[in-house]
Amino acid sequence: MTFHLSLPRRVLFGPGVYARLGEVARTMGRRALLVTGRSALRRSGRLQQAEDMLREQGVDYLLIEGVENDPSLTTCVHAIHTARRERCDFVLSIGGGSALDAGKAAAAVAPQAGDLEAYFHGGRKLERNPLPHLAVPTTAGTGSESTPNAVLTDTARGIKKSLRDERMVPDAALADPELTLSAPPDVTAQAGMDALTQAIECCVSRDANPFSDALALRAIELLARHLPGAVAEGSDLAHREPVALASLLTGIAFGNAGLGAVHGFANPLGAALHAPHGLICAALLPHVCEFNLPAAERKFGDVARALGLHAAGEVPAALAALNHRLGIPARLDGFGLTEEALPALAAASRSGSMLKNPRSATDDERVGLLRKVL
Fold first, then answer.
1. What is the pLDDT of residue 347?
2. What span, in angstroms and rounded, lies between the C-alpha atoms of 83 and 33?
3. Are strands 172-175 and 10-13 parallel, antiparallel or unpaired?
4. What pLDDT was estimated at residue 40?
5. Which of 249, 221, 209 lies closest to 309, judged by CA?
6. For the CA atoms of 273, 275, 279, 284, what is the dihedral angle to 10 degrees?
7. Mind listing the pLDDT tens digit for each residue in 87-138?
């Protein structure tokens, strides 16, 4: 057995660690590119708090505010050019997975000779190390603060995929569960199901290893026990903290083991439907698990026990029931998914994630899986 691990060099986790942002940033440079989402961080007062902490530590910053869900190449190119023009020493990203992914793309490409499209479309590899990156998540689901990839969207071509290099793992992750307290129930549910999907997929991945299994199974336990409470009682840190920890664990786990068919489908579906990523993953997860059961029954037994179940065969129905409990729709036709679109979406799902799925799927089988959420 051999495996290779990519991890953040420094992880700060726990309620209140956001207060150490300025201190950590100061160790990374004197001039930051500060990347955030559209408005939630500013409305919560947390953006002002971050700016104050940076100033107190003598760190200048250039603000890139307004990263959209599924960050676009246009937004990321603007961030990259700003980092280059202003000679930023490091990137500080604060927000949901989209803001963190935009920050990772900026940190990765800013020191390179080429532009973003050469790496996103042309397959060009990073020649130089990325800028140092401090990632601060405000939602609990993507685990982007600890992963080596950034999911970006070329809106002009309708293409959504990952830019990936193991050096893109943020140098430092600062995960404070208190930052997730303001996330509304639907965001909490969808992000949490994204984390659960990641944990299950990397557990049964062809590239799973003992390290990723340990983290993924613990994350599944935490999410099964606490995600419904975090959705129902969002101000209760007793539920928010374990869910935030699970998100961090899943990011490290799947960053080192890969994912599977759900995420193979999720990128082309997200580009086509503009539906929330976590919602797409949640809808597909029971069906993909049912499809994968014959190829990974022992591993699904581990997943079942982590979910509090008795047998591997109970997993798909339990996940469908959890979706219903969390208010996540079982079908995607409400977002514009049609029968006519299925073959093209199935073809577009051929990806690294699909290759790591424990059971190979033909084009017809992939169409059949998509049809289950129609």
1. 94
2. 6
3. parallel
4. 87
5. 221
6. 10
7. 999 999 999 999 999 999 999 999 999 899 999 998 899 999 999 999 999 9
* Angstrom distance (rounded) from CA 220 to CA 215: 9
pLDDT at 38: 87
What is the 3-class SS of 100-148, one letter each residue?
Answer: HHHHHHHHHHCCCCCCHHHHHCCCCCCCCCCCCEEEEECCCCCCHHHCC
pLDDT at 6: 86
* Eight-class DSSP state of 262: H
Answer yes or no: are the C-beta atoms of 88 and 110 closer than 8 Å: yes
| Three-state secondary structure call for residue 151 | strand
- Give DSSP secondary structure letters for 53-91: HHHHTT-EEEEE--PPSS-BHHHHHHHHHHHHHTT-SEE
Quote the Cα angle for 16-49-170, to 5°. 65
The number of residues in the chain equals: 374
Low-confidence ranges of the chain (pLDDT < 70): none
Find, among 348, 349, 356, the residue nearest to 292 by Cα.
356
The beta strands (E) that lie in the chain are given as: 10-13, 31-36, 60-64, 90-95, 133-137, 149-154, 159-164, 172-175
- Using DSSP's 3-state secondary structure scheme, residue 330 falls into coil
**Which tens digits make up the pLDDT trace of 286-304?**
999 999 999 999 999 999 9
Residues 6+ positions from 247 with CB-CB distance below 8 Å: 137, 139, 140, 141, 142, 143, 175, 191, 192, 195, 219
pLDDT of residue 153: 94
Integer angstrom CA distances of residue 326 from 29, 224, 227, 309, 323: 42, 12, 9, 19, 5
Alpha carbon distance 233, 184 (integer Å)? 10
pTM of this prediction exceeds 0.85 = yes
Task: Write down all domains in the chain, each with its CATH number in brackets.
Answer: 10-179 (3.40.50.1970), 183-371 (1.20.1090.10)
In order of 231, 232, 239, 246, the CA distances from 140 in angstroms are 11, 15, 11, 8
Q: DSSP label at 296?
A: -
Residue 5: its pLDDT value, please?
A: 85
| Tokens of residue 231, six digits | 């959705």
